[in-house]
Design a protein that fits this description.
Blueprint: E1 21-24, E2 29-32, H1 36-63, H2 67-87, E3 93-94, H3 99-113, E4 126-131, E5 134-141, E6 146-147, E7 153-155, E8 160-162, E9 167-169, E10 174-176, H4 181-213, H5 215-221, H6 224-252, H7 256-261, H8 279-288
Antiparallel strand pairs: 1-2, 3-8, 4-5, 5-6, 7-8, 9-10
Bound molecules: zinc ion (2 copies).
Length: 389
């Protein structure tokens, strides 16, 4: 008997993921496709710290204390760890709907909207849920073919829906969302401290050395100091300002995206349903709350029989071919992808048939797949009461 060896290339799901991300280390590292500014960030941080360790630290360690370079090294390592953790992780990308799931949602929406005459504008694809006595609109993503969970948004640069989307940050080369926000904040905070630290000891170094050998001689002996002072001076304003802004957002349990859109202020007059109305509680939730696993399963093996939504290639009709102008206050009953902000009663999963609601609390509906459920004509909106926190 002769054994026949068949070599098969293993295909992992990250290789087939739609969206504009790049992966390396066999899917362990995930970033945005555009990384030029991220390399500039790395260059500025590493370059400035290298100059500081080369020119100031030897003198300051002897003249003042050996703790100065030690603390600088610890701070530098922490900054780099937070930067790489933010840049290389899944920010909370939501998987796109499978083609059959997308078809099912389309059928549901059409069933809910009824027949639309030619030339008539179709109503917007919005679903309302009630969270902490506030009505929150869930919008349909025409690219991902899902109803976005509360606080999620589609990043046009990465071409993915991201849960608790904050913003896309070119400086870290990634989206900032539910899974990496706290690391992004710790990065800006520690970078602010590092910048202030280096700037301060640059000035101390010049002052001490000028007393020994004169100001001009000091600048000639340590040319790196001038570069460091300039980089730190210009970085200081932006980084410290950014840290202050995010501290303000965290104290309100608000995202940059919500702040820019005025989701909880201005004309909408809706109060933030996620805020505890307590700064300490809000900070604890954002910075010390639970961490969430990635739902992409990037390193999972591709299965021919049962491809997952994360591995489905984008189909031509996945594009926003059926976009329609928004008309407010129209609701659909199509399903959504739940997250922790979604009330339990409103977590039907993809493909759940429409739930009839009587009043505000719908009956528990057992999630079913698109294959074993057919859309029903049930135009009643889902409005759910729940205490999110
Ligand atoms: Zn999307
Ligand atoms: Zn992005």
């Amino acid at each position: 008997m002769s054994a026949v060896m068949i070599s098969r290339k293993v295909t992992r799901k990250w290789e087939k993921l739609p969206g504009k991300n790049t992966f390396c280390c066999d899917g362990r590292v995930m970033m945005a496709r555009q990384k030029g500014v991220f390399y500039l960030t790395l260059f500025l941080i590493v370059g400035t710290c290298a100059l500081f360790f080369a020119f100031e630290c030897p003198y300051l360690a002897v003249r003042l204390s050996a703790a100065i370079p030690v603390f600088a090294i610890v701070l530098f390592l922490f900054v780099m760890a937070m930067l790489l953790r933010t840049s290389f992780s899944d920010p909370g990308v939501l998987p796109r709907a499978l083609p059959e799931e997308a078809n099912f949602i389309e059928m549901e929406i059409e069933a809910a909207n009824g027949s639309i005459q030619a030339g008539q504008r179709p109503p917007p694809r919005i679903r309302n849920v009630q969270i902490n006595n506030q009505i929150v609109k869930l919008k349909y993503c025409y690219t991902c073919k899902i109803f976005r969970p509360p606080r999620a948004s589609h990043c046009s640069i990465c071409d993915n829906c991201v849960d608790r989307f904050d913003h896309h940050c070119p400086w870290v080369g990634n989206c900032v969302g539910k899974r990496n926000y706290r690391y992004f904040y710790l990065f800006t905070l520690s970078l602010s401290l590092l910048t202030i630290y280096i700037f301060t000891f640059d000035i101390v170094h010049v002052a001490l050395r000028s007393m020994d050998s004169g100001f001009l001689n000091t600048l000639k002996e340590t040319p790196g100091t001038v570069i460091e002072v300039l980089v730190c001076f210009f970085t200081l304003w932006s980084v410290v300002g950014l840290t202050g802004f995010h501290t303000y957002l965290i104290s309100l349990n608000q995202t940059t995206n919500e702040d820019i859109k005025g989701s909880w202020s201005g004309k909408n007059r809706i109060q933030n349903p996620y805020s505890h109305k307590n700064i300490i509680k809000n900070c604890c939730e954002v910075l010390c709350g639970p961490t969430y696993p990635s739902v992409l399963d990037r390193r999972g093996l591709m299965s021919v029989e049962a491809p997952s939504s994360t591995s489905s290639p984008p189909t031509p009709d996945n594009a926003a071919t059926k976009s329609n102008p928004a008309t407010p206050n129209t609701k659909t009953t199509a399903p959504l992808i739940p997250n922790e902000h979604t009330p339990d009663e409103a977590k039907p999963g993809i493909g759940t048939p429409p739930q009839k609601t009587n009043g505000s609390i719908p009956k528990e509906g057992k999630p079913s797949s698109p294959r074993d459920a057919s859309p029903k004509r049930s135009p009643a909106p889902i409005v759910v009461k729940e205490s999110a926190h």
